[in-house]
Amino acid sequence: QQNIGTLSIWIVVIISCHSLVVADCSGNSFLDPLPTATPEDMLYPLPSYFSAGNVDYQIDHDSFTITSPNRSQILEKAIHRYMNIIIPTTTTTRASSSFDDNLAIIAQLTVVIESLDETLSISTDESYSLSVNEQTSTIRANNVFGALRALESFSQLISYSSGQAVLKNGPWEIKDTPRYAHRGLLIDTSRHYLEPQTIKRTIDALSYSKMNVMHWHIVDAQSFPYASVAFPEFSAGSFSPSQIYTPETIKEIVEHAKERGVRVIVEIDVPGHTASWGKGFPQFLTCLDKTRQDGYCAENPCGQLDPSQDGTYDLIFGLASELSQLFPDDFFHFGSDEVVFQCWNTTNIVDWMGKNNLSDFGAAFAYFEEKVYAISQKIEKTPVHWQEVFDNRVSLPNNTIMQVWKSFAELDQIVKAGYRTILSNYDAWYLDCGFANWCSYCSWLDVWMNEPLSGGTLTPSEENLILGGEACLWGELVNDNNFDSRAWPRAAAAGERLWSPQNTTDPGHAFNRILNHNCRLDERG
């Protein structure tokens, strides 16, 4: 800004999408001209197989219907949602009738599913086929969740101009299946409380992006926003009495997610990151009066669960049992990251270690994790941990899942040890990076180019142990006001990498697709 007398002259630089410089953190750049738009640029993520034609169809908002011979409440609700997306009911130009006698009409979309089984898990089949022709179009899927993905693809093929809904470049044939079964986004409601509506809106965006997991890091050192029925003392660790999630609210969110084909996996991070537990149960915590600056924790406020007390494990079991009833998914995340052994360097714990023949704090950590594994089996859940369990040479049964946040070399090591893994390497898929000084920001392109098999040393059977991945949006600098802009469309870039074939490597067309998808997310709210 330059002041000249009483005048202010503002210099504004406007960069259009078509002259945008696309670059990754390594300095690779992709400049104008961007590739010519292709029909499939409307689809996100890119399907496994598709063919398009050169015929444009129109959809008459007075007569178009979506029907199914199958009776499914999830499907019926989805049809209602997608009818409102395809034929909006608002008084915008989209909803106003405009008819072109020169275009053929698509009058009906029929959805056929083979099974009414509505179990949603890591093994759920999300494959589908979509055939778009004049007069009628057909979706075929093995179950309702594949049908949801197909409905999303059909809706993405439609564009709007002067009140006319047009489906271009038909006839279409799409046969699609995800590359990885686990395609998620981690949200953090401890560092900043997120309103339930923000969480539901996030689930909607995940479904529009064909992502199927919301990893809910519900509590941490900063706050404990879950209103436990069995242990009401925990609520003392919330930011305020109004910033909590009741069991009823959680049930509503989980049901909202299932109706959109999104699994909700809960995480209670133990034994570290538990200072908020100390507000209600200080007797089971150590080093609550210490600081990160003194070397007692990875992030203030400090506090770790005491491994020497039986009551610690009773508390974890009680809380996990309660949460397992609210979160029906088979996976249950127990955290286990960034445990600082100095926090356990107390007389009581050291004496306990000697009595139990635990030679060092690593052995005490292994003791703790073995107890937690036993708890996971009691509540009939598959345990998930951050990679520090493996890094600290804790040997757990191979039904344990390790989430990798550091490097591809460690991903390969963990897989070669026989563990199933979830990839979340911080240098590409931590979406909070770049807004403070602990890691560097990377663009949608860095997220999109993050190939799970970059390590390059795995056999085909070992590659199959990689379940997929998650983008992570940690909450230190994220709240309701900026969540959407931090998460999207970058999380969707991870979604495409995890859905589309491995040879989806053209950044130019990826840019066209993500531009379209970003606008789509914005239009849908």
Strand count? 23
Output mean pLDDT.
Answer: 91
Please report the distance between the alpha carbons of the first and last residues. 34 Å
Q: Tell me, briefly, the overall form.
A: elongated
Précis, in short:
Helix content is 29%, strand content 20%.
Question: Can you describe what's shown?
Answer:
This protein has 525 residues and is an alpha/beta fold. It contains 15 helices and 23 strands. Strands 5, 6, 7, 8, 9, 10, 11, 12 and 13 form a 9-stranded mixed β-sheet that branches. An 8-stranded parallel β-sheet has the order 16-15-14-23-22-21-20-19. Strand 14, helix 3 and strand 15 form a beta-alpha-beta unit. The radius of gyration is 25 Å and the shape is elongated. 43% of the residues are buried.
Question: Which characteristics define this entry?
Answer:
525 residues; disordered N terminus; 23 strands; eight-stranded parallel sheet; alpha/beta
